């Protein structure tokens, strides 16, 4: 797939320049003025060209519950989420496509799907999501969500002695499934990656984490997990390990330069130093953290300590959208209220770099992705600067991040293949997708969760409410 983008606007140190970009076999081969036309001519006039962003943490199948779950903290919200009828693979397929479309139309060319698995159909679930991502062409990092403890174990015991049901699948069986998924689906050269992804310390044993470390080392896989999303998890870590979750994860060898950790709201200063030392990446999910009342992650402290930070939308029932530009906006300006010294605030250009290069670093691909650099892969996005939401002509990146860009993505490529042209997805039929989402759902189908009621009494007690 060869093409030349002519006269696109790109950011340079002291402003913007109009420039041409050549792409040959999916790789950026030249960035300069007045380049010869190679392959298809793409008109970049009045369009901003950026490297594609990463939606670095989401759960695609939560799309089926978006807008439904009432305002609740994570632990009770999860109980609510789990009560919905188990999904079928057709729903997995549709929600993966939907998540990809929303990510692409808000500037993302990569998605990390911390994929909830249908019990008993684990490999089928993974196969289905992989099929959807291959069809639409987004770069996918499928991170099958695994745990080996039952849901009630995720709440601290406090004074009470809690007995938890054993999880329905053994740790060893779970690891076999992941290894099989790697064998069947891990194809980095084709834009499909499998990650090891225990859900988090709250529902996973050390055996599961260390089993994942082994798989990660054996197959060169990135590692993903939730980390200290809530105050309850901070308490739980102390009960479980007698130290912080970060100290424990470091001890068992889970942290590394290819480990990305979603949320990271409740870390101590010494935890932050551990992340910096181990070069792990923080995935900031500001909207989910607000929606579930989890807290404000200390993102400015991470940046000052040299920790790599990128952005995620998180699943669509805790956000409840997959608009990456929205996550980038809130995720950068939110911290202006936590730090008086404005010199530490995140600028729009820094936010864009966090969303692109930061995402690539977190997935150990910054030598191949994340910036407009000759030799890197062509995961590119063109934004239409004549779009009403990006006018008048001021600072394109300033307005892209701080404004409310609406239908501003004109074109997108992944590995040099065009997926969006003239603002429309070209690889799948989005009208059919809308119809499927419509047909397979109904308005106002809510119910009072039974398990929330059961868990709530204990939750309120341990949290001192
Ligand atoms: Zn999540």
TrEMBL record:
SUPFAM superfamilies given in the database record: Composite domain of metallo-dependent hydrolases, Metallo-dependent hydrolases
Q: Where is the Amidohydrolase-related domain?
A: 49-418
The EC number on file is 3.5.4.28
GO terms (molecular function) for this protein are: S-adenosylhomocysteine deaminase activity
Q: What Pfam family is a match for this entry?
A: Amidohydro_1
Q: Which InterPro entries match?
A: Amidohydro-rel (IPR006680), Metal-dep_hydrolase_composite (IPR011059), Metal_Hydrolase (IPR032466), MTA/SAH_deaminase (IPR050287)
Gene3D superfamilies from the xrefs? Metal-dependent hydrolases, Urease, subunit C, domain 1
Q: Which UniProt keywords apply?
A: Hydrolase
Protein name, as recorded: S-adenosylhomocysteine deaminase
- Organism per entry: Anabaena cylindrica (strain ATCC 27899 / PCC 7122)
Traced from the root, the source organism's taxonomic lineage reads: Bacteria, Bacillati, Cyanobacteriota, Cyanophyceae, Nostocales
């Amino acid at each position: 797939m060869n093409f030349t983008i002519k006269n696109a606007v790109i950011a340079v140190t002291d402003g913007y320049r109009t420039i041409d970009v050549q792409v040959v076999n999916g790789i950026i081969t030249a960035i300069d003025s007045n380049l010869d036309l190679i392959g298809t001519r793409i008109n970049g006039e009045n369009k901003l060209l950026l490297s594609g962003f990463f939606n670095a943490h989401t759960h695609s199948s939560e799309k089926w519950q978006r807008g439904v779950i009432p305002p609740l903290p994570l632990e009770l919200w999860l109980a609510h989420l789990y009560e919905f009828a188990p999904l079928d693979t057709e729903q997995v397929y549709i929600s993966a496509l939907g998540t990809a479309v929303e990510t692409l139309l808000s500037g993302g060319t990569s998605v990390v799907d911390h994929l909830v698995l249908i019990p008993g159909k684990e490999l089928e679930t993974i196969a289905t999501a992989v099929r959807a991502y291959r069809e639409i062409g987004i770069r996918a990092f499928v991170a099958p969500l695994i745990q080996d403890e039952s849901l009630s174990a995720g709440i601290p015991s406090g004074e009470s002695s809690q007995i938890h049901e054993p999880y329905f699948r053994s740790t060893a069986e779970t690891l076999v499934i992941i290894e099989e998924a790697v064998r069947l689906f891990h194809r980095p050269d084709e834009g499909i990656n499998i990650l090891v992804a225990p859900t988090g310390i709250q529902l996973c044993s050390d055996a599961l984490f260390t089993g994942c470390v082994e798989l990660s080392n054996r197959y060169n896989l990135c590692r993903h997990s939730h980390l200290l999303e809530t105050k309850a998890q901070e308490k739980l870590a102390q009960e479980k390990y007698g130290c912080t979750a970060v100290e424990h994860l470091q001890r068992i060898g889970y942290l590394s330069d290819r480990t990305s950790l979603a949320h990271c709201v409740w870390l101590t200063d010494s935890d932050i130093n551990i992340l910096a030392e181990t070069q792990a990446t923080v995935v900031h999910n500001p909207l989910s953290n607000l929606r579930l009342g989890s807290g404000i992650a200390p993102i400015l402290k991470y940046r000052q300590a040299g920790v790599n930070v990128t952005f995620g939308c998180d699943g669509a029932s805790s956000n409840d959208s997959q608009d990456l530009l929205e996550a980038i906006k809130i995720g950068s300006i939110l911290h202006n209220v936590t730090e008086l010294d404005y010199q530490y605030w995140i600028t729009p250009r820094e936010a864009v770099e966090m969303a692109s290069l930061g995402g690539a670093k977190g997935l150990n691909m910054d030598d191949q992705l994340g910036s407009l650099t000759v030799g890197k892969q062509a995961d590119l996005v063109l934004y239409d600067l004549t779009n009403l939401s990006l006018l008048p002509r001021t600072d394109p990146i300033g307005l892209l991040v701080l404004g409310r860009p609406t239908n501003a993505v004109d074109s997108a490529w992944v590995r040099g293949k065009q997926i969006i042209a003239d603002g429309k997805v070209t690889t799948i039929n989005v009208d059919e997708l809308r119809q499927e989402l419509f047909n397979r759902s109904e308005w106002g189908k809510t119910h009072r969760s039974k398990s929330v009621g059961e868990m709530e009494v204990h939750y309120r007690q341990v949290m001192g409410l």
